[in-house]
Amino acid sequence: MFILLFFVYFSFDAYLDSSLAFIGLTKNDLVFRSDYSRHDPYRLAIIDSLLMHPMTSIDCALSMNEDFWDGSQKKMLGDLIRLYGFDLAPMNGSLFEVLRDCHNMIAGATGNAAAEMARVFEELIIFTPEPTGSIEEEKAYERKYDSLVNYLSQYAKEIDYKSIFGAALTLLWALDDFSVTNIQLPNNRMNVDGVSGSLLYYKETDFGRVVIGDSGNNTYSGEFAVIIDLGGNDVYNMGEQKGCIQLVIDEAGDDNYQGGDYSIACGRFGVSMIIDNEGDDKYEAQNFSLGAGVFGIGILIDHAGNDRYFGDTFTQGAGGFGIGILRDDEGNDTYEGALYAQGFASTYGVGILGDGEGNDHYLIREKYLDEIRYLDHYLSMSQGFSIGFRPDLSAGIGLLLESGGNDYYVCDIFGQGASYWYGLGAIVEKGGNDNYVAYQYAQGSGTHVALGLLIDETGDDNYVAKGVSQGCGHDLSLGLLFDQQGSDTYAAFDLSQGAGNANGIGILIDEAGDDAYVVKELHNTQGYGDFRREYGSIGLLMDLAGDDHYTSGGNQDFWQKGKYGIGIDWY
């Protein structure tokens, strides 16, 4: 060990440059190529750019977080659509004119193979354990998997994503100018199949049934294209979306949204939006739900209230060949899922869970056993996570964006700012005293040519994981944990806290606070880089200020583990 003898404050970049210089590297050495495998047509261009310049992923994640919260809902969606290379201008017209036009746009955009594509994608996503039995079973599984992926790769290009995305953007623009007072409402009440309560308006249109409920307690069941409810504690029994367009606007009340698969703001080969303006609401569905985009766009926006969200798989801000958004602006909220949830992206997808102010809980239930690795741990693949279909189809962008509050995150294997196969998965947490609990491949973990980030800006935080976590890059990937302020605690078992493995780059950076770094295995943690495939991996633990404690070293120390692994405490 070596005691650092200089105490001049540097910029962040200067600290990084100086830390890398100890192991004979510069920022120019922190790079991956984009041609390790065949370039599939569904890889988002930004992923290649970030792999070529992985340290820019910090600014990218922070910028996406700011863009998500800074401005209107239509700007939020427009920014995400531009990730696909589409710069779209919305159509003009009243809400009902726009609904008709959007319906027509989407009806001609889905191609002839939509039903079969939906089945194939569902079979790939809904978890089926890989066989751990005979060689024949494994080979049969591989043949079936390859067949499904090849079908998806061939026919997904038939979808006119630009038209579907344009319809969603146009609808959000129209909602900005919409007011229910602009609709001429009859004085008489009416009875409509599927509605219990008092209605102010009902019409059957080319794009589906439209209903407006009064401020009493109403119940809606069945298929409607548009539901606008003016208040009351309402119940929505929402079935599988079948039409091109679905829109629900609820002005007030403590509401209960219930559904099964492909429901509650699931845009499947179309657009589905729910906007709830206030109240303590409950949303409960199964798979492909609660802000899910499957060859389409699904958006769930809850502006206020202490809300509860329950789903299973591909839920709570999940996108595959489309965009899924769950945005909750304020309140103490609870999110519970099981797999591919809470800011998840599959191929050609963007999935975002954004939560504003409040003390929130994010839980991924232990349901789908990780049979290949463990008998007592479960796949999560959630909380800012993306995964592709290796080696044929790249992942997308999965983000969990938190604006503040003392929050609690729990998952098991794969999550909390992680990615697998040409994708980006990230958590950006703005503030609060937060707790992150996971087991493996989590808390800033990139695996197999991917980028995984966890960025926490302020607060006294606790990070607990077993391994391949807390800033770990495995197999040509970047894993980064960046905590900017607060007195934090990091606990792990092995291959964590700034660990590069199999030519990956793993970085843990803590800018300020009196921190503690605790590990069980010293040889591959806290600044470790192994040597593989005739060149190295890079591991960096860098603490810039504070009275800190380490298992490996001490204050104003540096230590080296492997040729390109270093831990360094600057002050």
Question: What's the quick description here?
Answer:
The chain has 571 residues and is α/β, with parallel strands linked by helices.
Note down, in words, how this protein is organized:
The protein is globular. The longest helix has 21 residues, at 135-155. The strands form six sheets. Strands 2-3-5-7-10-13-17-21-25-29-33-37-41-46-49-48 form a 16-stranded mixed beta sheet, covered by helices on one side. It has a 14-stranded mixed beta sheet with strand order 1-4-6-8-11-14-18-22-26-30-34-38-42-47, with no helix packed on it. It contains eight helices and 49 strands. By secondary structure, it is α/β, with parallel strands linked by helices. It is 18% helix and 35% strand.
How are the strands of the largest sheet arranged?
A: 2-3-5-7-10-13-17-21-25-29-33-37-41-46-49-48
What is the count of helical runs?
A: 8
Give a quick account of the main beta sheet: strands, pairing sense, barrel closure: 16 strands, mixed
Q: Which regions contain 5 or more consecutive residues with pLDDT less than 50?
A: 1-9
In round numbers, the mean pLDDT is 93
- Distance, first to last CA: 15 Å
Total beta-strand segments: 49
- Class derived from helix and strand content: alpha/beta
Shape: globular
Radius of gyration: 24 Å
Approximately how much beta-strand content do the residues carry? 25-35%
Task: Summarize the amount of helix as a percent range.
Answer: 10-25%
